[in-house]
Automatic annotation (TrEMBL):
Protein's name in the database: ABC transporter ATP-binding protein
PROSITE patterns given in the database record: ABC_TRANSPORTER_2
GO molecular function: ATP binding; ATP hydrolysis activity
Gene (UniProt): livG
Signal peptide residues on this chain, from the entry's feature table: none
Organism: Wenjunlia tyrosinilytica
Gene3D superfamilies reported for this sequence: P-loop containing nucleotide triphosphate hydrolases
ABC transporter domain span: 5-246
Keyword Transit peptide: no
UniProt-listed SMART domains: AAA (SM00382)
Record keyword Nuclease present: no
Record's keyword terms, sorted: ATP-binding, Nucleotide-binding, Transport
GO-annotated cellular components: plasma membrane
Domain of life: Bacteria
Pfam families associated with the record: ABC_tran
């Protein structure tokens, strides 16, 4: 089966320095794939190549089998790829609900199978209002009670949920998360883990770059370790029951 997101032979050089070196990676539907490694291993550079914010020096990126290597990040987003940021990306002057609404209004006009739609109660794009998508995402992230609060007044843990709700309201098929547990306490990280597992159970393809190895251990179906720009291969995580192919 074609993976929703795949990278083939990705290499990226900054001048003469090779940050990512010939990486092959598949991010299958219905699974959480994690990327771990020490600082400087090349995780962020690979992540940026997958999102489209960095053009790889060589190699190819495929979304649902389509070569998107030359497409910028916003075009990949329209094809169903969403990301969260290490540095939180929320609009501080907007309320929680308004922030999430921004994501809902970026929903694609396409109907794609395997959306998180079923789980979070999001009707298929094109058939429902952005308001319904906003409400569903707020509910999934347990933000209903704070929907009128201004983002600027909220703590990091809540803002991480706001960012994730905004991204989910756009109904992605592939979700890339860059250190989503940064700044979360243990309870918040556990709640986040449950949401990520639920999204995978609903068919989404998730790629998680994370330093919190407890979270990785709890949620990932497959763990890839990166060092010196290369993938060392899957390891660490047990294959979850009922899982599909690994790479
Ligand atoms: N814009 C850049 N110009 C030059 N070198 C860079 C640039 N960005 C990253 N690098 C180098 O590329 C290598 C990989 O960096 P990258 O940020 O991808 O690693 P990482 O695994 O994400 O690290 P961290 O966990 O600290 O975020 C590092 O040696 C880094 O110094």
């Amino acid at each position: 089966m074609t993976a929703p997101l795949a990278a083939r032979g990705i290499t990226h050089r900054y001048g003469g320095f090779t940050a990512v070196d010939g990486v092959d990676l598949s991010v299958p539907a219905g699974r959480v794939t994690a990327l771990v490694g020490h600082n400087g291993a090349g995780k962020s550079t690979l992540f940026d190549c997958l999102c489209g914010t960095v053009r790889p020096t060589s190699g190819r990126v495929f979304l649902a089998g389509r070569d998107v290597t030359r497409l910028p990040d916003h075009a990949r987003a329209r094809l169903g790829l969403a990301r969260t940021f290490q540095q939180l990306a929320v609009f501080p002057g907007l309320t929680v609900e308004e922030n999430v609404r921004v994501g809902a209004e970026q929903r694609r006009g396409l109907t794609a199978p395997g959306l998180a739609a079923g789980l979070i109660g999001l009707p298929q794009p094109g058939r429902s209002s952005a308001r319904a998508a906003t409400r569903a995402a707020l509910r999934l992230l347990d933000l209903g009670a704070s929907h009128r609060l201004r983002a600027a007044d909220l703590p990091t843990g809540t803002l991480r949920r706001v960012e994730l709700a905004r991204v989910l309201a756009s109904s992605p098929t592939v979700l890339l998360l860059d250190e989503p547990a940064a700044g979360l306490d243990q309870d918040e990280a556990e709640a986040l883990g449950r949401v990520l597992r639920a999204l995978a159970a609903d068919g989404m393809a998730l790629l998680l770059v994370e330093h919190d190895l407890d979270l990785v251990q709890r949620v990932a179906d497959t763990v890839h370790e990166m060092a010196g720009g290369r993938l060392l291969g899957p390891g660490g995580a047990e294959e979850r029951e009922g899982g599909g192919e690994v790479r």
